[in-house]
Amino acid sequence: MGPGRRPRDTDHRGVDVRRTQEERKADTRARLLAAATELFAAHGVDAVSVDAVAEAAGRTSGAVYAHFGSKQGLVLALLDERKGSVLTVLQAEVAVTDSPASQLAAVWANVAGTGGEDARWDLLEQELWLRAARDPEVADVVRARNAESRRYSARRLEGWTAAAGARPAADPDGLAVLVRALLTGLAQQRRLDPGAVPDDLALAGLAALVGLAGPPAPSTATTRTTTSTNRPRRGAPGHRAVRS
Amino acid sequence: MGPGRRPRDTDHRGVDVRRTQEERKADTRARLLAAATELFAAHGVDAVSVDAVAEAAGRTSGAVYAHFGSKQGLVLALLDERKGSVLTVLQAEVAVTDSPASQLAAVWANVAGTGGEDARWDLLEQELWLRAARDPEVADVVRARNAESRRYSARRLEGWTAAAGARPAADPDGLAVLVRALLTGLAQQRRLDPGAVPDDLALAGLAALVGLAGPPAPSTATTRTTTSTNRPRRGAPGHRAVRS
DNA sequence: GTCTATAGAGTGATAGAC
DNA sequence: GTCTATCACTCTATAGAC
User: Rounded to whole angstroms, how far apart are CA atoms B65 and A44?
Assistant: First the structure.
């Protein structure tokens, strides 16, 4: 074999250099977006520095600016990325054979979900809605996302109500708006005070909107917390910022 | 008359010194809170510096720290201040003689209001809810506010439904949660895309929750905007931060 | 395309005079 | 109680080496 240095697998920083530049570029972009999603969702956009995102992705801030131009660009790209994903509120694995009531239950369970990864993303989504109110550029992207989500939800709801012979509170498009509003509003209150929004209450509200005759609902099934449930969040790390 | 300097009405900075220190202290506190409300609501808490608040109140940042200890303390004091005020969502000037339907209309009008001062405060309220999700200290205050608001709303709703012989989707306390959720959710979507949430849609949703037989609802009364209504916000000042 | 290094600006908070 | 002055620190974004 010739004496030439055989090509190394990594450069001096351990970065894989075997693949094409295009592959590495896409990889870095994906890493940055994933890190940004995680950190922004956990701590809020303003509380996370560009350096922190880059570091979490195994890169430096320079890479962020090469890819997205600015922190704002990163936020917008992140919104765009998640567009094709599980963005719609009415996304839930429901069997078409289930009763409309249990399908609603599945939707709610999806929104109020165990509080895993979805809950964090939900928090970020809320923040972006807020940001959209003050930043037209963000507003455009969120509006587009929302319109797409609404179309999907409307079709879905149309099928359900037709099949169940329900008398919904509005036409499918309007009903999609109402259902989304109720779901996000309930999720918001539930984040603050879980006891205030028992599952059966949420289901009763949804049933009323879509026009299903709700069951009498025991309604006292869960104690209403309201006062200092106030879990001190043991183990939560100082909760103030992730900086470089 | 004696030759002594007569007491001046203001000191070298134009600050009134006739009143007692206690009065001036209260005045400064009120000024700071008013300025903070205005600026935080308009631009977001993180985008407004302590110096900017102090300057808008005709004081300096030192005064803020003397009164509230920290920026966070200012935010909390602001929440507390607004507690006794018009904080409840169901606050609306309605005549008891009005029909339940028109009372709901008044409530919605109050929430979706012309977009004046209330709309700005609403934005701040949203931000504080979001902040509460990450900061237990803020969460406590917001939770207390919310509980009080819910009690008030529940009593009010109880009266309405009883008088109208409606069949609400839940008991008064639960109904208060549902109505609040729908209202805030609709307000949120309306901020982003006003055309997506026509008044009659909101009213139909509310009627469904409280159990009033909603009118057939023309429902096509307003064009659904969805796409680029996107008013470029003429006259809005750069919208990025109010710093010192 | 990614890094290092740094400019340039701004922040929250504190000490001490008045 | 309020102000002035300043500390110690952080941020975003850019320039140039590799």
Answer: 25
Task: Report the distance separating Cα B231 and Cα B168, nearest Å.
Answer: 38
Q: Give the residue from A19, A37, A114, A16 showing the smallest Cα distance to A80.
A: A37
Task: Give residues 222 to 241 of A whose Cβ lies within 8 Å of B.
Answer: 224, 226-228, 230, 232-233, 239
pLDDT tens digits along A81-98: 887 565 566 666 666 667
Q: Is the domain B86-225 a CATH 1.10.357 member? A: yes
CB-proximal positions of chain C, under 7 Å: 1-5, 10-16
CATH class of A86-210: mainly alpha
Which one-letter amino acid corresponds to residue A154? A
pLDDT tens digits, one per residue of A16-51:
545 567 777 889 999 999 999 999 999 999 999 999
Q: Is the minimum CB–CB distance between B219 and chain A shorter than 8 Å?
A: yes
SS3 B137: helix
Domain A21-72 fold: Arc Repressor Mutant, subunit A (1.10.10)
- What is the crossing angle of helices B172-192 and A136-164, to 10°? 130
Contact A30, A22 (CB under 8 A): no
Please give the single-letter amino acid code of residue B243.
Answer: R
Q: Is the CB of B241 under 7 A from strand D?
A: no
Supply A52's token pair: 């922190």
Helix/strand/coil (H, E, C) string of A129-163?
HHHHCCCHHHHHHHHHHHHHHHHHHHHHHHHHHHH
**Cα end-to-end span (Å), chain A:** 47
Within 13 Å, how many C-alpha atoms sit on residue A108's CB side? 21
End-to-end CA distance of chain B: 47
Query: Using CA atoms, how far apart are residues B16 and B8, in angstroms rounded to an integer?
Result: 9
From residue B133, how far is each of A239, B57, B138, B176 by CA, in Å? 11, 30, 8, 21
Phi, psi of A118 (to 5 degrees): -60, -40
Record: fold of B21-74: Arc Repressor Mutant, subunit A (1.10.10)
pLDDT 10s per residue in chain A (244 long)? Answer: 434 344 444 554 445 545 567 777 889 999 999 999 999 999 999 999 999 999 999 999 999 999 999 999 999 999 988 875 655 666 666 666 678 788 889 889 888 876 667 778 889 999 999 999 999 999 999 999 999 899 989 998 898 888 888 899 999 999 999 999 999 999 999 999 999 999 999 999 999 999 987 555 444 444 455 544 444 433 334 344 576 6
Domain boundaries, chain B: 21-74, 86-225
Q: Which residues contact B123 (CB under 8 A, 6 or more apart)?
A: A130, A133, A134, B41, B191
